[in-house]
Amino acid sequence: MSVAVALDGARSQLRELPNELTFVESPPGMAGLSRFDLTPLDESGFLFALRSLEQSGVRLFVIPPQAYFTGYAPEVSASVRAALAMGADTQPVLLAVVHPGGQDVTTANLLAPVVVNPATGAAAQVVLDGDEWPLRAPLGAGSDAA
User: Is the whole-model pTM more than 0.85?
Assistant: First the structure.
């Protein structure tokens, strides 16, 4: 089974991902967890939940960041590509973890995206080099997705 992810705000680019993602290393703060179900929370491919298949009640909200931040195009390192068994011609899908704001602004973590091999569902959350991308980028007024 697969899940459609919108890679731009107009939904002109859709990518299919397996609905089960397997992290090569546990995401930060989730020691011992590696298998997650990717569940769409809307029909447009803009919002998803990553639910642990190993510990009930553990979930993250994620978005395809390019749909909200058009200039977002970080380089995925060769070491990450190798860890996810991606060839040079495989285009990874990036997901950003969302921090619901409640009464504050909702933000997305652009500094540490989840990188996914779309063919296998292998995933890794990686911290990008440099300071170009913020840890808490506000979603809303400046975003491109409908």
Answer: yes
